[in-house]
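We modelled each protein-ligand pair independently. The example shown here corresponds to the S-adenosylmethionine entry; the chain sequence is given first, followed by the ligand as SMILES.
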Amino acid sequence: MSNYGRNAIAAMGERLDSLLKELERFGVENDARTTDHEEKLLNITAETGAFLTLLVQAVKARRVLEIGTSNGYSTLWLADAVRRLGGGVLTVEVVADKAEIARANFERAELLPWIQLHLGDAGEFLRGQDEASQDFLFLDSDREEYVTWWPDLRRILSPGGLIIVDNATSHAVELESFLRLVQDTPGYTTSLVPLGNGELLVLKENQ
Ligand SMILES: C[S@@+](CC[C@H](N)C(=O)[O-])C[C@H]1O[C@@H](n2cnc3c(N)ncnc32)[C@H](O)[C@@H]1O
């Protein structure tokens, strides 16, 4: 990891730091071992985690929604940032076994009080959320669904809110139609950050 990421880690507690490192090793080993896609953990990189922490604090997001929890690795980075702002993370996962492992990791990190875990399909979940109820959305899930989810993502994001989409360079082709849709929607500014698997930033105008 770069020194930039290390600076972010230095700010967290030792317990969280060592759990994140353990999960990084476990995730890489697990994903190399299994060929079953559902069993893969597909965690973000540590650099991406540090970047998310910085972004949450920069925009002072108190209401953070993550789509795609897996075993909770990225949620821990988000929760550590939002905890310092007095907010919370809502995270959605459709696979029960993964959600169970994530909950155990949240407990180990002592970050459970700042995390609400929802087990279920994200599309259905998004439809039930209130307008402007989230300041920061992190999408790391079923990329083919993002186009369908866009109307609800727009609706629930507060003015001035930020959406981060993982895998913007590693799976650029899969995200092409979503990117086009976002860029064709008035009131949003995008930027592609070539860090980790590529992070697409989508800023909603503060109107
Ligand atoms: C790339 S992994 C998430 C990795 C996690 N963000 C991390 O970095 O630690 C994607 C996750 O999205 C979940 N997922 C896929 N489709 C979903 C859906 N429709 N609703 C909720 N979760 C979904 C998968 O089960 C998987 O665990």
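The helical segments are 3-10, 14-33, 46-58, 73-83, 96-108, 122-127, 146-156, 176-183.
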